[in-house]
């Protein structure tokens, strides 16, 4: 028998997107492309495609806990990302179990609304997100509407976005990335990063495309993959940003609505296949 190869392991706790562009599917594709072993705990199944969300069907709380316990008893993740957590109760149970198992390197993507406007997290869940999940986050990655909902700050200027980042740091997150996909529509997208000491922006060319389904999921999964490798959050953020930028830039023709990003692109470019 050959010698077994050691691999880093990443876990996503999120919803399924039947269309394959966001949620668990985006996360596992990203883990695979970045060379980490991917595992998944489903919170809900969505009936979804590139035109929108047609239905949301939660897994039972018992089912959620059983999946987490199965992983804990056999496969300690080197990093975790949370995505669509469905409701306050699911957030509380997930947070409790992450603490109980002492899992580290947690990326919290506080998914609330799908790009088409479908609600993926109830209003009551905001409280649980603020009181249970943010404290576990090595990195939290809200988009602008999520940062507004979590902080109560209307983000209509760069200063307001900085203020929101501070509030999220004070609430317990180690690193805050307020993503800029929804911020203005100029030639550039800027994501704001705050680690409690430094505030800096990651600036990239804005790609003019409607195919941005799953950008947030993909970015946070790339962060988890990078943390699983043992990278420091600041390098993880820079590398994950390169992954998502490449995936948006080399768009693929899938579906008639807001298409998914290209999860292969980063690896193909590394192998000079594009
Ligand atoms: N048109 C674009 N061109 C370049 N980068 C983009 C574009 N849109 C989003 N991004 C980047 O993609 C990442 C995800 O940001 P975004 O604000 O779209 O997240 P999101 O709203 O949570 O995504 P989703 O809910 O679809 O998963 C960020 O790093 C952001 O800067
Ligand atoms: C399952 C799922 N998670 C997250 C998002 C956010 O993009 C989505 N559209 N679907």
UniProtKB/TrEMBL annotation:
What Gene3D superfamilies has UniProt attached to this entry?
3.40.1190.20
InterPro entries, sorted? HMP/HMP-P_kinase_dom, PM/HMP-P_kinase-1, Ribokinase-like
Provide this UniProt record's keywords sorted from A to Z: Kinase, Thiamine biosynthesis, Transferase
Instruction: Answer yes or no on keyword S-adenosyl-L-methionine.
Output: no
**Record carries keyword Kinase:** yes
Q: Give EC number(s), comma-separated.
A: 2.7.1.49, 2.7.4.7
Its top-level enzyme class, in one word, is: transferase
Where would I find the Pyridoxamine kinase/Phosphomethylpyrimidine kinase domain in this sequence? 17-262
GO MF, one example: phosphomethylpyrimidine kinase activity
Instruction: Name its pathway.
Output: Cofactor biosynthesis; thiamine diphosphate biosynthesis; 4-amino-2-methyl-5-diphosphomethylpyrimidine from 5-amino-1-(5-phospho-D-ribosyl)imidazole: step 2/3; Cofactor biosynthesis; thiamine diphosphate biosynthesis; 4-amino-2-methyl-5-diphosphomethylpyrimidine from 5-amino-1-(5-phospho-D-ribosyl)imidazole: step 3/3
Q: Which reaction does it catalyse?
A: 4-amino-5-hydroxymethyl-2-methylpyrimidine + ATP = 4-amino-2-methyl-5-(phosphooxymethyl)pyrimidine + ADP + H(+); 4-amino-2-methyl-5-(phosphooxymethyl)pyrimidine + ATP = 4-amino-2-methyl-5-(diphosphooxymethyl)pyrimidine + ADP
What the entry lists under PANTHER family is as follows: HYDROXYMETHYLPYRIMIDINE_PHOSPHOMETHYLPYRIMIDINE KINASE THI20-RELATED, PHOSPHOMETHYLPYRIMIDINE KINASE
Protein family: Belongs to the ThiD family.
NCBIfam families in the record: HMP-P_kinase
What name does this protein carry? Hydroxymethylpyrimidine/phosphomethylpyrimidine kinase
Native source species: Fictibacillus halophilus
Q: Print the organism lineage.
A: Bacteria, Bacillati, Bacillota, Bacilli, Bacillales
């Amino acid at each position: 028998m050959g010698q077994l190869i050691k691999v880093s392991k990443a876990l996503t706790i999120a919803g399924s997107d039947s269309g394959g562009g966001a949620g668990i599917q985006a996360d596992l594709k990203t883990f695979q492309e970045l060379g980490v072993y991917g595992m998944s705990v489903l919170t809900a199944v969505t009936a979804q495609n590139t035109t929108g969300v047609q239905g949301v069907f939660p897994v039972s709380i018992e089912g959620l806990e059983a999946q987490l316990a199965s992983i804990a008893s056999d496969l300690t993740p080197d990093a975790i990302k949370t995505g669509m957590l469905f409701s306050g109760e699911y957030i509380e149970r997930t947070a409790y179990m992450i603490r109980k198992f002492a899992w580290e390197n947690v990326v919290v993507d506080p998914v609330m609304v799908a790009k088409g406007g479908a609600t993926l997290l109830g209003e009551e869940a905001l409280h649980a997100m603020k009181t249970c999940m943010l404290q576990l986050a090595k990195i939290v990655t809200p988009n602008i509407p999520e940062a507004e909902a979590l902080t109560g700050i209307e983000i209509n200027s760069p200063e307001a976005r900085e203020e929101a980042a501070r509030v999220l740091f004070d609430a317990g997150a180690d690193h805050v990335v307020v993503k800029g996909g929804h911020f203005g529509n100029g030639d550039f997208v800027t994501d704001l990063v705050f680690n409690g000491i430094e505030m800096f922006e990651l600036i990239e060319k804005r790609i003019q495309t409607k195919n941005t389904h799953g950008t947030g999921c993909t970015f946070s999964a790339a962060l988890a993959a990078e943390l699983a490798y043992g990278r420091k959050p600041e390098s993880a953020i820079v590398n994950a940003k390169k992954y998502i930028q490449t995936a948006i830039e080399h768009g693929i023709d899938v579906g008639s609505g807001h298409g998914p990003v290209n999860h292969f692109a980063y690896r193909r470019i590394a192998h000079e296949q594009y």
